[in-house]
Amino acid sequence: MEEDGITRIPVKGEPTILRYIFVALAILGLDQWTKWLVVDKMDLYQTIPLWEGVFHITSHRNRGAAFGILENQQWLFIVVTVLVVVGILVYLARLKESQPPMSWSLALILGGALGNLLDRIRMGEVVDFLDFRWINYPIFNVADSAIVIGVGIMLLYTLRQPQEKERLTEGVEDPR
Question: Is Secreted one of the keywords UniProt gives this record (predicted)?
Fold first, then answer.
């Protein structure tokens, strides 16, 4: 951290975004490792039933966005993802420790966004492999899971805010 041109090292208990960056990097690492295993050990479209008819590991590639929409628009996805990543980093730096649930949600989204971004840059497509056949859901990956969980936490936190604010201000007179 820099204050008046002096670089300071954060001390224990001081607000820092490093824990959120670490979580994002851990998600990125897990995502890339699992995708590497699928690419290295499986043929494309090969499926391994872990629970027949319910859950399979299926080697699949996605050149589009969620559910395959906007297929072959890699530069669009790369540019948008880079902007999202920068936005998340700026927002995390501004939040510091003021809203931990929002920061954790952003860390999950950041890790997932970086995982899929790395695939798009390196291979021009995203490796998917988690195949829930019982509910006929599109095949996805660890990065997608992190993004969905992060967005879910963000939505719950955001929807709870008005109620929390209302609870905190109950019985307080309006000074106007």
Answer: no
Q: Give Dmax over CA atoms of the chain in angstroms.
A: 69
Residue 70 has pLDDT above 60, yes or no: yes
CA contacts within 13 A on the Cβ side of 26: 9
Given the residues 31, 119, 131, 144, select the one marked as catalytic: 144
* Percentages of the chain per state (helix, strand, coil), in multiples of 5: 55, 15, 30
Binned at pLDDT 50, 70 and 90, residue 71 comes out as: confident
Known catalytic membership, residue 174:
no
Please indicate whether residue 43 is annotated as part of the active site: no
The one catalytic residue among 31, 119, 128, 131: 128
How far is residue 114's CA from residue 98's CA, in Å, rounded to a whole number?
24
- Domain residue ranges of the chain, discontinuous segments joined by +: 16-164
The answer, yes or no, to whether residue 32 has pLDDT greater than 90, is yes
Residue 163, pLDDT > 90, answer: no
**What is the C-alpha separation between 150 and 161, in angstroms, rounded?**
17
